[in-house]
């Protein structure tokens, strides 16, 4: 197996990823040895490319979200079938074309980093939506004069400044993703 695979598996477990399985075209004895060495939950050996895709579909019919990581021609059908296909950047062109995400390094540690970055992105989108709706729920009626009877008004100039400030806050919050330390907690899994 590639260097640091066991650490990458541990990092995925730390992230709360479910079962981790090895799908391979190799012989069963080799697959079992590698599975034990790296600490995955299970393995399936001697699989043809279509059988890998079928294994992915079977997991999906059991109600599981499936992330498939691969780097070869034989992985392409499973990468397409998975909910998220991740190709190792040093892999074959067909694997890269078939995947949803291309990991730019040859290290499987990038899988955990991609999972962490996707979680941070979703969290960021939710924050931005909350604040945009919160601002617009108050700001638009105020600017439209809905609260004039209560003595609350908003000068259109201040409304424009507030809207610009709202956009600035949303963009600044999104830019925080550049500061995400997606590998920092991996030290706990070594």
Order of strands side by side in the largest beta sheet? 3-4-5
Mean pLDDT: 88
Number of helices: 7
Using the alpha-carbon principal axes, give the shape. Answer: elongated
The percentage helix is 40-55%
- Give the class from helix and strand content and strand pairing: mainly alpha
Instruction: Give the H and E element order.
Output: HEHEHEHEHEHH
- Which runs of at least 5 residues are low in confidence (pLDDT < 50)? 186-190
How far the N terminus sits from the C terminus, by CA atoms, comes to: 17 Å
Strand content: 5-15%
Q: Please give the radius of gyration in angstroms.
A: 23 Å
Largest sheet: 3 strands, parallel
The number of strands is: 5
């Amino acid at each position: 197996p590639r260097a640091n695979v066991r650490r990458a598996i541990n990092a995925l477990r730390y992230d709360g990823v479910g079962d981790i399985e090895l799908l391979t075209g190799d012989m069963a004895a080799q697959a079992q040895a590698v599975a034990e060495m790296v600490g995955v939950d299970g393995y399936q050996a001697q699989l043809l490319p279509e059988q890998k895709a079928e294994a992915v579909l079977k997991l999906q019919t059991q109600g599981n979200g499936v992330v498939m990581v691969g780097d070869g021609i034989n992985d392409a059908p499973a990468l397409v079938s998975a909910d998220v296909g991740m190709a190792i950047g040093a892999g074959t062109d067909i694997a890269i074309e078939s995947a949803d995400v291309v990991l730019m390094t040859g290290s499987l540690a990038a899988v955990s980093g991609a999972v962490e970055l996707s979680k941070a992105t979703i969290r960021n989108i939710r924050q931005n939506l909350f604040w945009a709706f919160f601002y617009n729920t108050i700001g638009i009626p105020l600017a439209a004069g809905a609260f004039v009877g209560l003595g609350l008004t908003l000068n259109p100039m201040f409304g424009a400044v507030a809207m610009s400030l709202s956009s600035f806050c949303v963009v600044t919050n999104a830019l925080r993703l550049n500061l995400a330390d997606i590998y920092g907690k991996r030290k706990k899994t070594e």
